[in-house]
């Protein structure tokens, strides 16, 4: 009994220590972004006090960059892609889980290739495609690419959840004369946790991506927050207050979203990848 | 209802036979279409482009000669081998540090300690942040100009370690790998955790009755039962690492400095395709680098499927 107690303390200590490692860089950035230039360097570990508090960095940021626009671009791209992913993947998942037809297994296999083969390897082809569709430097290019990227895993996760919806419910609706489309609509609320999981798991890589914005939409009007931040950080590399403020603005919204969605995210990753 | 989707659509035939389930096509079409047009087709088009030479906007089929250039000329093979070597080191550090640490954290989280959910949330936080932000945050912290590193190391009498880790050719790649490990350790942690919580409680109880310690429980119960997850985590790490780009680009730029010491296949692909400084970009050679990356990733997947999965089945039966 005593041994179990002391090993518990050790486990707590190990976890606390690793939490410190996980939080330390973020805390350093956020805390120092609210201090004046002198105390950023003189006392990097101190909390801002009335004397050292300063919003200089945020002021530079407001004057020199289009951050609100970048933010809106990221939001549009992420929400647009998520809506499309959820809509088309849930329909495909419904068909794959509900009907037996000759090409069922083959379609499922075809769609799951994308889980393992990174879409980035098609970049040259994607750029050519977007050029010929006149979609370069539009958010549509990004939305389409992220939708294609998100479909494989979303279909995979949603199909396994849809299989869990009781058959009797759908048969009862069929007897009542509901159309197949109506029955699909009826199943959606039943798999809400799965939809939440897919949202959480797809959202983060889309919001955080640098590669495709850099290649498909580098224009000033279509920059996402990650691309805008990376350009800004490179340019202001010696202005610590501004850089720390930019980093803080890039960190805080994602972390808030994550804390809100963390349960769905965990169930999405663990349920989807290990099945 | 087993009806081929290639069946004729003509109304006359439809009236005679069972009605064609058009709704299946409607349900599947949007996803299959977007996925095919924006993902599968571009990948195939890239591979096709790597077998062509483009001059004045005209594509000429040249077979594998781009690959011969990639693997046979000094200009291309030297950076390619350097990037491949660096990528293997990058992957090796993830396998040796990220996945064992992730497993350890997962095992600790299964002890049903108070506050497990809070620990889990905090430990996964770095993973949700943008790679660009993470890279820059670490770049600042490791920058000798700020002095965070110095004020941490001085009280420990480790001043000798106060070096510009990202600026030295000898340490840049390892430092970047460890930053990536710091960010991504949450993923193996969650996957191992998911596998660990599925282990039936009776097994632990039996072990406890036999007086087994934590190590014995881990070695003889937990590890064998999560072996399939070890395989999945390894293959995910492999695909992710051989496809990595953002962190190195954000911290060291497209040149992957210092002096290409941190160049991996992703940054090499970007430079070959888009060019840098005085070297113009070459879409065909870029596509060839992507083709090479695809081959590397497929070899990794194949090793996993053939070697690992077979071994797992042998262990189980």
UniProtKB/TrEMBL annotation, chain A:
Belongs to the binding-protein-dependent transport system permease family. It is found in: Cell membrane. The keyword Phosphoprotein does not apply. Pfam families: BPD_transp_1 (PF00528). The chain crosses the membrane at residues 9-31, 70-96, 108-133, 139-162, 183-207, 240-261. This is Sugar ABC transporter permease. It is a multi-pass membrane protein. One of its GO terms (cellular component) is plasma membrane. PANTHER family: ABC TRANSPORTER PERMEASE PROTEIN MG189-RELATED, ABC TRANSPORTER PERMEASE PROTEIN MG189-RELATED-RELATED. InterPro entries: MetI-like, MetI-like_sf. Coiled coil: none annotated. It comes from Deinococcus ruber. Residues 71-261 form the ABC transmembrane type-1 domain. The keyword S-adenosyl-L-methionine does not apply. CDD domains: TM_PBP2. GO terms for biological process: transmembrane transport. Keywords: Cell membrane, Membrane, Transmembrane, Transmembrane helix, Transport.
From TrEMBL, chain B:
The keyword Transport applies. GO terms for cellular component: plasma membrane. Residues 84-307 form the ABC transmembrane type-1 domain. GO terms for biological process: transmembrane transport. Keywords: Cell membrane, Membrane, Transmembrane, Transmembrane helix, Transport. The chain crosses the membrane at residues 20-44, 88-111, 123-146, 166-196, 217-239, 285-307. It is found in: Cell membrane. Its main location: membrane. The keyword Chaperone does not apply. Pfam families: BPD_transp_1 (PF00528). It is a multi-pass membrane protein. InterPro entries: ABC_transporter_permease (IPR051393), MetI-like (IPR000515), MetI-like_sf (IPR035906). CDD domains: TM_PBP2 (cd06261). Belongs to the binding-protein-dependent transport system permease family. This is ABC transporter permease. It comes from Deinococcus ruber.
């Amino acid at each position: 009994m005593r041994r179990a107690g002391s090993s518990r303390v050790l486990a707590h200590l190990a976890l606390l220590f690793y939490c410190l490692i996980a939080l330390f860089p973020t805390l350093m950035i956020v805390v120092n972004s609210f201090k004046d230039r002198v105390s950023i360097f003189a006392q990097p570990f101190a909390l801002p006090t009335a004397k050292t508090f300063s919003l200089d960095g945020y002021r530079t940021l407001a004057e020199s960059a289009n951050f609100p626009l970048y933010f809106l671009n990221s939001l549009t791209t992420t929400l647009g892609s998520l809506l499309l992913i959820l809509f088309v993947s849930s329909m495909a998942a419904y068909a794959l889980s509900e009907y037996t037809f000759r090409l069922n297994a083959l379609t499922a296999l075809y769609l799951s290739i994308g889980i393992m083969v990174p879409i980035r390897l098609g970049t040259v082809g994607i750029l050519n495609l977007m050029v010929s569709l006149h979609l370069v430097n539009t958010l549509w290019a990004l939305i389409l690419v992220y939708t294609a990227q998100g479909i494989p895993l979303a279909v995979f996760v949603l199909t396994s959840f849809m299989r869990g919806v009781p058959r009797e419910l759908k048969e009862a609706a069929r007897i009542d004369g509901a159309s197949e489309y109506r029955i699909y609509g009826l199943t959606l609320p039943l798999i809400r946790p799965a939809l939440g999981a897919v949202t959480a798991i797809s959202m983060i890589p889309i919001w955080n991506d640098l590669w495709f914005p850099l290649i498909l939409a580098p224009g000033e009007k279509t920059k996402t927050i990650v691309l805008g931040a990376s350009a800004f950080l490179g340019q202001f590399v010696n202005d610590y207050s501004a850089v720390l403020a930019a980093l803080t603005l890039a960190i805080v919204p994602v972390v808030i979203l994550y804390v809100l969605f963390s349960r769905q995210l965990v169930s999405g990753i663990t349920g989807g990848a290990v099945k | 209802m087993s009806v081929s989707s290639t069946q004729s659509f003509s109304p006359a035939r439809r009236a005679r036979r069972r009605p064609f389930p058009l709704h299946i096509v409607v349900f599947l079409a949007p996803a299959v279409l977007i996925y095919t047009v924006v993902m599968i087709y571009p990948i195939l088009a890239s591979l096709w482009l790597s077998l062509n030479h483009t001059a004045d906007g005209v594509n000429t089929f040249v077979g594998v000669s781009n690959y011969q250039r990639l693997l046979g000329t000094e200009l291309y093979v030297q950076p390619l081998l350097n990037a491949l070597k660096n990528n293997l080191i990058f992957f090796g550090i993830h396998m040796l540090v990220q996945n064992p640490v992730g497993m350890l954290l997962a095992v600790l989280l299964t002890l049903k300690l108070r506050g497990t959910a809070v620990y889990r949330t905090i430990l996964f936080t770095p993973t949700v942040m943008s790679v660009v932000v993470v890279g820059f945050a670490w770049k600042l912290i490791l920058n000798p100009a700020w002095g965070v590193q110095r004020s941490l190391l001085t009280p420990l009498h480790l001043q000798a370690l106060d070096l510009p880790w990202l600026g030295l050719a000898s340490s840049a790649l390892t430092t970047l790998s460890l930053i990536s490990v710091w960010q991504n350790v949450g993923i193996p942690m969650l996957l191992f955790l998911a596998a660990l919580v599925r282990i039936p409680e009776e097994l632990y109880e039996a072990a406890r009755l036999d007086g087994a310690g934590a190590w014995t429980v881990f070695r003889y119960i937990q590890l064998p039962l999560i072996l399939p997850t070890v395989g999945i985590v390894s293959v995910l790490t492999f695909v992710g690492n051989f496809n990595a780009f953002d962190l190195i680009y954000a911290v060291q730029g497209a040149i992957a400095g210092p002096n290409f010491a941190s160049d991996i296949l992703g940054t090499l692909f970007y430079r070959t395709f888009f060019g840098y400084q005085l070297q113009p970009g070459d879409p065909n050679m870029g596509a060839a680098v992507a083709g090479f990356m695809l081959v590397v990733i497929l070899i990794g997947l194949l090793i996993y499927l053939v070697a690992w999965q077979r071994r797992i089945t042998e262990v189980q039966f």
